[in-house]
Amino acid sequence: MNALEIAQRYFDAWNRRDADAIMATFAPDGTYSDPTAGSGLTGAAIGAYARGLWQAFPDLAFEVVSAGEAGAEQVAAQWLMKGTNKGPFGGLPPTGRSVSLPGADFIRVEGGTIKSVTGYFDSRVVPDQLGLQIVVQPKEIGPFAFGTSVSVRNGKTNRPGAFSITELRVRSDREVADVQELSRQTATEMLGMKGFLGWVGMTIGNRMMTVTAWENPDDPAQLMGGGAHVAAMKKYYGPDLGAGGMVGVWTPVRLRTTVRCETCGKMMHPEDANGHCRCGAALPAEPPYW
Q1: What is the count of structural domains for the chain?
Q2: How far, in Å, CA of 221 to CA of 210, rounded?
Q3: Are 96 and 148 within one domain?
Q4: Which domain holds residue 196?
């Protein structure tokens, strides 16, 4: 079997979505690299990477646009990857959108098996096509740390009686993705809980934090009844997740909202104004506290 035939067998295994068959095309020390997987995946890690892509894109397939020999036992293959995002991707819920990603693989063959696959593609294309934001910023500058955040709320304007705050220190990008997925599941479940008002999740360096607003201090106890939060706690208190953290329930000492009158421009406290500005105009609806 020549190098082109071995490369085709490799792409066929991807299109059958057969992780074992993909791994079987590689030499025992064969490596896979691309802009998102990183450098030098071997063995079971190659199969795990493929399964992760299929979880996010169950219909993922490669169309080989062109393939040719690029030297002794080397193949250059241009391809177009297509798929529909029906599973979690990057810790985010599925968008249902389709993607079309052009790229190229350089495949080195040795002794009838693949010694290395090095893939090249624009890593911004898939997030762009899924409608995801791409944030480019430093991790740290002096005493400042940078990160990203996400929020969910049910639209209620009730005054919070408590905030539950958690912090988890993670050890790897893999743990970041795990925490993001467990947090997404937990926040979705909280939408149906008594007293829930809103949730914010933040990732700042190796610190992942959540702040959740509740109507009453006893409301967060519902999280101990099962579901994603309990599953996350089992992983955290086991060997699989995090280097440490903090959790607590806080009650506000002072908490007020303000709105600006659309007629005269004055900033007002709605609770003090009975819904009307001093100028007599009706004030806008009171915003959610959190």
Answers
A1: 2
A2: 16
A3: no
A4: 140-250
Q: What is the pLDDT of residues 2-42, one digit of tens each?
A: 999 999 999 999 999 999 999 999 999 999 999 988 889 99
Q: For 223-277, what is each residue's pLDDT tens digit?
A: 998 888 998 898 889 888 888 999 999 999 998 888 999 999 999 888 777 888 9
In a domain, 144, yes or no: yes
Residue 69 sits in a domain whose CATH number is 3.10.450.50
Are residues 116 and 159 both part of a single domain?
no
Whether residues 177 and 154 fall in one domain: yes
Does residue 284 fall inside a structural domain?
no
Query: Between the CA atoms of 26, 55, 190 and 129, what dihedral angle is there, to the nearest 10 degrees?
Result: 110
Instruction: Kindly report whether the global pTM for this prediction surpasses the value 0.85.
Output: no
pLDDT digits (tens, 9 = 90+) for 203-230: 988 899 999 999 999 999 999 988 889 9
Going by C-alpha positions, the residue among 73, 67, 55, 66 that lies closest to residue 19 is 55
Q: Are 35 and 74 part of one and the same domain?
A: yes
Domain boundary pick from 72, 100, 129: 129
Instruction: With respect to residue 262, please indicate whether it lies within any of the assigned structural domains.
Output: no
